[in-house]
Structures are given as C-alpha cells and as structure tokens.
Amino acid sequence: MTVSRGAFVDASIGTSPAGDAIMGEVGIESAGIRAFPGRRWIMQWDVAVALKGGVLGNTHPYLGLFGPHMLAWTEVGVRFRPNRSWSPYLGAQIAGEAQVLSHPGTALAVSELQSLNPVDGTGGATAHGGFRIAAGTSYLDETRSLLVDVFVEEALGAPQANTLASTFTEIGIAARFDVWRSLEFSVEGIFGLAPTRDDALRGTTDQTTRVGGAATFRKIFANRMWFGASVFVERDSDHVVYTASNATYDTANAPSLGVTLLFGIPLTRNKR
Amino acid sequence: MRRTWLLLLCACACDPQKAEWGLDLIDTMKTPDDGPLACGAVPTDVNAGDRASCMFPAGSHASETLGQTSSGIPIRHVIILMKENRSFDHLLGKLHDRGMPDIEAVPDDYSNPDANGNPVFPTHATTTCISFDPGHQFDSVATCIDNGKMDGFVFNAAQTTTSDGSFVMNYYTDADLPFYYWLATHFATSDRHFAPMASGTFANRDFMMFGTNAGVVDTGLAYPPPSTPSIFQTIMNAGFTWAAYSDGEALSGALDWSPSDPGVRTLDKLFDDLDKGTLPNVAFVDGIEDVEDDHPVADIQRGEAWLKTIYDHAVKSPEWNRTAMIWTYDEAGAFADHVAPPNACRALPSASPFTEMGPRVPLVVISPWAKRNYASHVVHDHTAIVRLVELLFDLPALTGRDANSDGLLDMFDFSCGRDLTVQPAPEAGTGGCK
Q1: Residues paired with A129 in a beta bridge
Q2: Phi and psi of B206, rounded to 5°?
Q3: Do A251 and B19 touch (CB under 8 A)?
Q4: The complex's ipTM?
Q5: Is the minimum CB–CB distance between B352 and chain A shorter than 8 Å?
Q6: Half-sphere exposure at residue A62, Cβ-oriented, CA atoms within 13 angstroms
Q7: Beta B242-246 vs B282-286: how paired, if at all?
Q8: How confident is the prediction along chain A (272 residues), in pLDDT tens digits per residue?
Q9: Which single residue of A133, A175, A220, B377 has CA 20 to 30 Å from A150?
C-alpha cells in the first residue's frame, strides 16, 4: 500500500546522557504498510541495514564512532470488521535493533570502552529488542489508512560498558496515518517501568521510569524517492530508596532528544 | 508568535544535558547541634592489614574498618578545599628542606628526558603564573607515569603544549608561597596522598563524591548518572547537612551544577556561615576556575591569598574547635612527581575497573585537632576524605574504595586537654607573576 524501498542516507543531531551527537548513515531500507486482500490483515514493517558514523560530544575533542547498524521490526494486525472502513484492530509487533559503533583505535571490549568516557546508548555494542501487543481501531479505504491503538510492550536492552541490562514494561499510545504511495505520519508515546533493582551492599533499591515520545513523517514522491523526518524524546528517572533510613531520592537522567532527516531512492525500476 | 519566541529562547538557553539530582531537601535541612565537645585518643589501628587487602565491602561502617567511632571525636564540620592540578613535588616538594625533614625529599637524581633525551632536573619556578596547561587526562597521565618510571611528564607537556615541556619540572618554595608552606609545616601534611585515578578533574572528583569514577574517565562532557549513591545522599540520610560553595562552578563543574541547584552557595555565604557559626556539616569549597583554584594559567599566589581569606574566617569562627579543613588538589595536572602511584582497591559494586591511582597531590589537614608539624606517610587518596566524613557521621561506605581507606586518622590528635592554639599565619606571597 505504502512502501519505501531502496537506498537511503540520513543525518541526525541529538543529545543524550552520553553527550551531544551528530551522526549519519547510508544503507538500504524497506519500510511500509500494506493491507492484504480482503482487508482483514495489515502488516507494517521497517527493515534497514546501514553503515553509521559520526561524532559523540562526550569528551574533547569529540569522539569519532563508526560501524554497522541494523534495525528490523514488524507488526501484523487483524481488522475484525474487514468490510467496514472503521474496524477494531489487534496487532502484535516484534522489534530488534543492534549497532556496533567503535572508535578507531579502541577495541569493543568492555575494558577498552571503560577507558573512554561513557558511550553507552550511542556507541559501543548496543542491542535492543521488544515485543508489543496493540489494540485499537483501524480506518481503511482505497487510498488511506489510519491506525490508532494503545499498546503494552516489553522492551529489552542488552548490557553495555557502564550500563546494566534493562527491562521495561511499557504502555503507550500510537497513531499512524498513511496515504497510498504518498505519505506516512506516525506518533507514539510511552510510559515504562523497570523492575526494582536491589543493591544489597549499599542498602538501596532503585526503580527506573521511562517516558518518551516519537514522531515520524515520510513523503514518498511519484518517482518513489522519499524524504523523511523524525523526532524523539526520552527520559529515564530513578526512584532511589535507602532501606535503612527510608530516605528517598527522585533523580532524572539528562533527556535524550534527537532529530533525523532522511532521503531515499528506489533501487528497482518503477512498476507503476 | 510570542510563545514561539519563548520556546526558541528556552531551546537556546536551557542545557539539554541537565540531569536532576533529587537533592532538593538539602535546602530546607537544618544542621544538627554540635553537641558536647568530645575528645579522646585514637585507638590503635588493628585493621590496616585487612584494609590493605581490600577486605571491607561497600556499606561498611568506620567502626568496623577503623575500630573508631565518632563518639571520641570533636570534629563536626569538615571543609573540603579541593584545588586544581598541582603535584606534590611541584607545590610542596621543598618541604623536606623547609622545616619538615620527615617529608620525603625529591631525589637529587630525579629527572625526565626532554625530546632530545637530555635530562631535565627540577628547577625553581621563575613565575607563579605558568602559562601552559599540560594534557592531564587518562592517556596523558599514563604517558607521565610511564609504567611507574615517572619520567614522561616533560614528554607529555611537550606533546600537549607549545613549550618544550620543561616547565612541569618547576617547583615552588616558601619564598614563593609562604602561606601554603606555613600551613603544610604548621599542621599535618601527607606525602603519600594520591589522586584516586590516573586521569583528570571529573573522574578524580567523582571518587570524592561517589567513591568511584562512575563511568567518567576524562574531564569534558560526561557526568555520573544522578542515581549513583553519593556522599550527598548518605550525609542527608543520617540527618546531617552539606553545601557546595563557589563563586565559579560548584565542584569544579564535575556534576554540571549551576548556582541555582540545591546545596550550591556563594563564597560570601561561606564567610557568613563561618562568621555566624552556621556551617553545614560538610562544606565543599571551590575557587573560580583558572583564577582562584590554582589551575594553570592562574596566578598561584592569588589562589594562595584566596585560601588565606577562608582560613582567616575559619580560625575566627565560633565553630573552629569543631572544624577540620582539608586542603588538597583534585589531581596533579601532569606536573612532575617522583613517586609511582600504587594500586588501590576496586570501587565495587560500581563497574569501575580502575585501581591505579594518579600521581601524588598535596593534602594538608588544617584544624586545631590536626597534629602539628606532622608528616603522614599513610598511602591514601580522596576517598580517605570521604571515609573521614563517614566516620564523623557514622555513614556507610559508598564503595570498596572508601570502605578500605584510612580516613586520615593518623593526621589528627583528639587527645583531651591538648593545646589547640594555632600560631599567626603569614600572608600569601605577592609579586611572583612575572
């Protein structure tokens, strides 16, 4: 229904607890949404493989990072009233993302990364994954699709040089609007809670809360080239309790913010 | 339209990397009454061997690790005056010849090779305004230490400045810095106090606040996660108070705190608190960067005068007899020092892998209860200051590093009835910035 497939180049600027970053990547991507015959099933996907590089402002001079980046997610949903424009919708999504961005001259071993200022979240070996169940409503006609849903997901993060593995149970709301072979716009917001961590030696417990949001816009031109823009914001907060004194501290990491601009060209002939 | 401009203004003016530390309560906490003046001899240290073997974990109390409790100690206020970037040999290397014969002298044959391999020996500085700031982050300090040979300082300075690097072999004397030398000879001075990590300001200061570098290696744009257990939190947990005083960046910018952050005060407020006897239990005091904090290119005599002003207020304070001032430097700033740093305990349970300390820095305990004209040779780093605070207020250790530290106890004499008077101090030096 709406598909962008081909080579892409993007550039992003952002900030996170690891520092400000200017990154870019070049790769291939297939992303889109389609309704299957009978309009009962809808599938969304985004699969990308790219080479990524840039600089992270966590030290002077800025730290150069370079390496592969892979992203893959898909959501398959069912429309319970396929013959109507508006239908209840239930979907399941699985997602994974991994990147291995190294600083030239520095090995990816944890001990090597720990001899640099923290790159966690931006550089080093990072891997995230998740599983989502979404429920909401779907509007579908000959040229347009709208999905609005609430979701529950389990978001997993692999450990990094200075960061423990993470698990967040998240709830959120998402909306996606597509115009056939022309336009894609999506927004979502999440609220997540991690399990409480005990630090027996120091007598503390710590629970992390995550709040975030993202918006994506993608315009697909008649020649199937596409232009995209996305923004995201995310912040982790911690509730630290000292069990002996019951003293509590509510802290918050520096927020993560990012803006990405993307341009893509199809690699296959136009079949329209 | 007005709203758009306001949003744009905020986007430009706000620091997007700003974290929230959750310490707001400190602004409303009251410092507890000091209570009756306690005193008593420091017990024999029977746990030194266990501490050297890193036997004590985070969470340990000083009563377990030092065999001492706060009940026999009169100190209820600690002022931590952490300056910037001077090594022991560079600043106080002539103490051995200036009234402190127990302080280890710089060996006559100590030198560093220059770019041509010719030896550069220590020489008397010709100015108190050194105009170069040698590289002093993780890689540079490793070059300086050169696997314990301590012969890479000149090479590093030549590589990281536009000079030949020989200035890092400069030293000062009591003629240049009369007040600094007087403090070091009048009170208790350590000649085995090392920076906790072989790197720059942020990592070393983080050890003082968290007992670990908390992931930070080089000074710049990296800060610890604000949920890291800190000395601020453990002080507050026990009902005691702290403040970070500075007319520049509090804690030398290591936590990215601004003047409006909880607990941050001006220097005038420090003077007011000293004069009125309203000092918090722990005061972190920092000078203006490159002006008062002795960091090159500051005139070190100006930093000396700055410390003299604080000292003058302190000795006149109604809380003087309950106060210990710790004057030290965060790290050696890649100025030469001849003593190879030993290893320390790992900062477990933090992920920090670092055990090698950085080159020696000056540390002087200034207090009516400090031993007089005393040279301490006990090996420690900034986490000994943390341990002293933990001892005084019965706080648990933050990590394995401070848990196995000595708390500077050998530099105090808490004996009842001892003479607490201090001699008049000389003024700071002048005219050295030529």
Answers
A1: A96, A156
A2: -60, -35
A3: yes
A4: 0.90
A5: yes
A6: 13
A7: parallel
A8: 788 899 999 999 999 998 899 999 999 999 999 999 999 999 999 999 999 999 999 887 789 999 999 999 999 999 999 999 999 999 999 999 999 999 888 877 888 888 889 889 898 999 999 999 999 999 999 999 999 999 999 999 999 988 899 999 999 999 999 999 899 999 999 999 999 999 999 999 999 999 999 999 999 999 999 999 999 999 999 999 999 999 999 999 999 999 999 999 998 765 54
A9: A220
What share of chain A has pLDDT > 90, as a percent?
A: 82
Residues 280-339 (B) with a CB less than 8 A from some CB of A: none
d(CA B403, CA B57): 6
Reply yes or no on whether the pLDDT at B172 is more than 90.
Answer: yes
* Whole-number Å distance between alpha carbons of A130 and A128: 7
Which of the four pLDDT bands, split at 50, 70 and 90, describes residue B7?
very low
In the block, residue with structure tokens 């090995």? A107
- Please indicate whether, in this complex, the C-beta atoms of B16 and A15 are within 8 angstroms of each other: yes
Give me the torsion for CA of A197, A200, A202, A204, rounded to 10°. Answer: 40
Chain A hits for B215, Cβ within 8 Å: 114, 117-118, 120, 161-162
Is the distance from CB of B145 to CB of B195 less than 8 angstroms? Answer: no
Q: Is residue B9 predicted with pLDDT exceeding 90? A: no
Tracing tokens 């607890």 back to the chain, one arrives at: A17
Q: Give the list of residues 6+ apart from residue B95 with CB closer than 8 angstroms, or none.
A: B103, B181, B184, B185, B189, B191, B375
pLDDT digits (tens, 9 = 90+) for B342-395: 999 999 999 999 999 999 999 999 999 999 999 999 999 999 999 999 999 999
Region for residue A260 given its phi and psi (left: phi exceeds 0; alpha: psi -120 to 50; beta: otherwise): beta
B80: how many CB neighbours lie within 10 A of its CB? 24
CA distance B389 to B237: 13
Residue A264 three-state SS: strand
Name the closest residue on chain B to residue A252, using Cα atoms: B20
